[in-house]
Amino acid sequence: MRLTGSLVARHESLVTVDLDRAARIKEVLGEVGDDVAAGEILARLDDESIRIELDVNAAKLDRAQAAILQARAQIADATVAQEEAMSSLARGRKLREKGVAAADSLERLTYAASRAATTLDIQRQNLSLAEADQTILSTERREIENRRMQTLVRAPVAGRILSRSAKVGALVESGSTELFSIAEAGEIEVAAEVPQMDFLKIPAGAAATLAVPGLETPLHGVVRLLEPAMQATGRNGRLRLAITTDAGKPLPTGAFARGEVEVERHGAVLLPTSAVETNDGQAVIQIVENGVVASRAATIGMRSGDLVEIVSGVRDGETIVLKAGNFLADGDRIRPVMTANDSRTLSEPPLKLALDGRP
């Protein structure tokens, strides 16, 4: 079965950006036709404002670290002060028990110990606040660094760049037009449409031979996909043919391709249409036995170009009148002139499998 189509990427990935604010393209590294690895940088966006945010964040982190160090030093001082206050209170209680210290003196020592404990708690809270500020600032830094990484436009998959719309100075934002399109793994296949009658006869996995203008040797492939929905207009079916042979060069998408799909294969006798006559709707073939012409009814099967399949009426190896049959009658004696004989399938070019009928 013959078909025409065009070369397309088997899996095409579109490269876009995900930004919280618009940015301009500063540098473009990927070009159409380049083979790229997954994660490779294709373009860089302007990140000046983000770098300023990183500098501000770095200063705040330094200040938070200094606050943590100061709080730890104050905790150390408050701990020593509390220990001294508690030691003084213990000595005052002993002296009070002996009647040496006055009651108001013990009261002052008790108040000093309580105040030292409160001061230590406050310094510990100050340390917790400083550490919390540092955690918040570290989280903010990771978010800023993530936004900076988003200014590096990377290839999502390995493959070949098919198109590029990215231009230096262009303003881009989330949801804008894709900057690049990539054929995943560089795989190219053929997308074709065929009429419904032919489409329903094509099995998945059927072998195909494809010709692309500009390529000296044909490509081979298989039917990879038969789309389940017919087109609303024209009632054509769409299919994809995976190319299984190496073209020897990168194939451009959009290029025209034509070929044949092997729908069915079986052994049969093939004759050119010139060897088959029709009398009252009945196919008739003239055979030659011992140099004598005889007509024989035949049943016709599949057709391909100027070849027809003979289901019955002729056996393999018999001598057939290829042409000039209208000038011959049953019983005529002739001297056959042999033509080239070949053994091919219905999907291949026409064959001369019969004989010239000449007296």
Q: Could you characterize the architecture of this molecule?
A:
The chain has 359 residues and is an alpha+beta fold. 28% of the residues lie in helices and 33% in strands. The strands form 4 sheets. Strands 15, 16, 17, 18, 19, 20, 21 and 22 form an 8-stranded mixed sheet that branches. The protein has a 6-stranded antiparallel beta barrel with strand order 1-10-13-12-11-14. The protein has a 4-stranded antiparallel sheet with strand order 2-9-7-4, with no helix packed on it. A hairpin with a 2-residue loop joins strand 18 (292-304) and strand 19. Helix 1 runs antiparallel to helix 2 (103-149). The radius of gyration is 45 Å and the shape is rod-shaped. 23% of the residues are buried. Residues 342-359 have low confidence and may be disordered.
How is the topology of this model organized?
Elements: E1 2-9, E2 12-15, E3 23-28, E4 35-36, E5 41-45, H1 48-97, H2 103-149, E6 152-154, E7 159-164, E8 171-172, E9 180-184, E10 188-195, H3 196-199, E11 207-211, E12 219-226, E13 236-243, E14 256-261, E15 269-272, E16 276-279, E17 282-289, E18 292-304, E19 307-312, E20 319-323, E21 337-338, E22 355-356
Helix pairs in contact: 1-2
